[in-house]
Design goal:
This protein has 445 residues and is an alpha+beta fold. The chain has 3 domains: 83 residues, Phosphorylase Kinase, domain 1 (2-Layer Sandwich), CATH 3.30.200; 201 residues, Orthogonal Bundle (Transferase(Phosphotransferase), domain 1), CATH 1.10.510.10; 78 residues, Carboxypeptidase-like, regulatory domain (Immunoglobulin-like). The chain contains 13 helices and 18 strands. The strands form 5 sheets. A 6-stranded antiparallel sheet has the order 1-2-3-4-6-5. The chain has a 4-stranded antiparallel sheet with strand order 14-13-16-17, with no helix packed on it. A 3-stranded antiparallel sheet has the order 7-9-10. A hairpin with a 2-residue loop joins β16 and β17. α4 packs antiparallel against α10, α9 packs antiparallel against α10 and α11 packs antiparallel against α12. The protein is globular, with a radius of gyration of 27 Å.
């Protein structure tokens, strides 16, 4: 095994394929961990493979987007080539599906959305991926989704490296037009992502080879079994998304990745109201890819650094916004019809109602305070009374003594605590919520 490549010190080999070997290394001047993809010397002398490898590096380096693996450097050395790229500690979707037997609807939709965002960026730059499949999708331990391997990607501005399209791609995920070797556009990637989405939801691919027909023949001529027949928990809006993604004719599919993104976001708006990364970390922990301690550390860090952002994401959730808009309209109508005059100049009009054990009658020097930090967020009830939603702008003032605190969240298990409040002192609660039991698993692929 090589010891050094450029300014990188090789640590270990982490994977190998037909064309390349992947190493884990340290880029010493910066002290950062990187992955190095090395073209095998046995094929590096063949011009077609060398050109394709170099083109992959150029494509990935030009695509600066959070859901695409970043390329740091490209090196020619010792008769071969190396791509120095971002190292992602995690699991690829292929291995996850092999263990999980299908994924919960929310997790599947989050992954599909993040991959769609990566492809939308690539399509905007004129690049078609042409090999969307679970093995090319990474899920990091930080809850991120990363698209990789642009080895057979194509840009209209460049000539193709093959005479026909039939030799490109992975058969089970190829679009009908890709099988026929026709000119491709972004709608071919829409098809492939639809196949991956279907597989995540059901645990199986939509088109399977049998004794009478190959998978390529079935893709071109047959309909797949609807996802809801395999997994009844698949929502109907998602089944409609799958149907449009995997329409036989490109003209019947989503015209762009952006159109698909809009529909996926609408579905998630009613299912997940927390930070997607935190949701994914909790899922990976439940599947055994992260220990309880590792997940808690990641989520706690997210709570400290991203609490305000997570709360903003919750507030920006489409369903919440619509509900708030309707509520405001109803309240305004009641006020107008009832002829109520609100005394806007009075500061007392905006004071928070005091809890049952009021603090108003106690000297401020005798009050205690409670600070609460929760990942991802929670409604805070004290002695049965709702007091605030994390993150707080300032600690809550409380009367001295024992108080009963409940942290409530619609998608996480509630937490109940007794907390002693002492005069003039601040008590602190730091908590990472545990995801409620997810839906059952689908059939094995």
């Amino acid at each position: 095994m090589l010891e050094r490549i450029g300014n990188c010190r090789i640590l270990e080999e982490v994977g190998a394929g037909g064309m390349a070997v992947v190493y884990k290394a340290v880029q010493e001047p910066l002290g950062r961990t990187v992955a190095i993809k090395a073209l095998k010397t046995s094929i590096a002398s063949e011009a077609q493979f060398a050109e394709r490898f170099e083109r992959e590096a150029r494509f990935m380096a030009s695509l600066q987007q959070e859901n695409i693996i970043n390329v740091h450097d490209f090196i020619k050395f010792g008769g071969t080539m190396f791509i120095v790229m971002e190292y992602v500690r995690g699991v690829d979707l292929y291995d996850l599906l092999d263990k999980a037997d299908g994924l919960p609807t929310e997790i599947s939709t989050i992954i599909a959305l993040q991959v769609a965002r990566a492809l939308n960026h690539a399509h905007f730059r004129g690049i078609i991926h042409r090999d969307i499949k679970p093995a090319n999708i990474m899920l990091s331990h930080q809850g991120e989704v990363k698209l990789m391997d642009f080895g057979i990607a194509h840009a209209d501005s460049l000539s193709d490296l093959t005479e026909t399209g039939t030799g490109l791609g992975t058969p089970s995920y190829m679009s009908p037009e890709q099988i026929l070797g026709e000119k491709l556009d972004g709608r071919s990637d829409v098809w492939s992502l639809g196949v991956v989405f279907y597989q995540m939801l059901t645990g199986r691919k939509p088109f399977l080879e049998d004794a009478t027909k190959s998978v390529l023949q079935k893709i071109r001529t047959e309909r797949y079994v609807p996802a809801r027949k395999i997994n009844p928990k698949v929502p109907r809006p998602i089944e409609r998304i799958l149907s449009r993604c995997m329409a036989k004719l490109p003209a019947d599919r989503y015209p762009s990745m952006q159109a698909l993104i809009h529909d996926l976001e609408d579905v998630l708006a009613s299912q997940v109201v927390v930070n997607y990364n935190a949701y994914m970390v909790s899922f990976l922990r439940d599947q055994g890819f992260l220990s309880e301690m590792e997940a808690s550390e990641i989520l706690a860090t997210g709570a400290v650094r991203g609490g305000q952002q997570q709360q903003r994401l919750v507030r920006e959730d489409k369903t919440v916004l619509r509900s708030m808009g309707l509520l405001h309209a109803v309240v305004l109508a009641i006020l107008v019809l009832g002829g109520i005059v609100i005394q806007l100049m009075s500061k007392d009009s905006f004071a928070r109602p005091a809890p049952a054990a009021t603090t108003a009658s106690i000297d401020s020097n005798q009050l205690g305070f409670l600070s609460v930090t929760v990942n991802p967020w929670a409604e805070v009830l004290i002695d049965g009374v709702h007091r605030d939603t994390t993150p707080f702008a300032k600690p809550i003032a409380l009367t001295p003594g024992v108080h009963f605190v409940e942290l409530a969240h619609p998608y996480f298990q509630p937490v109940k605590k007794e907390i002693l409040i002492e005069p003039g002192k601040k008590a602190t609660i730091l908590e990472t919520l545990i995801l409620k039991q997810t839906q059952g698993k689908g059939a094995r692929q």
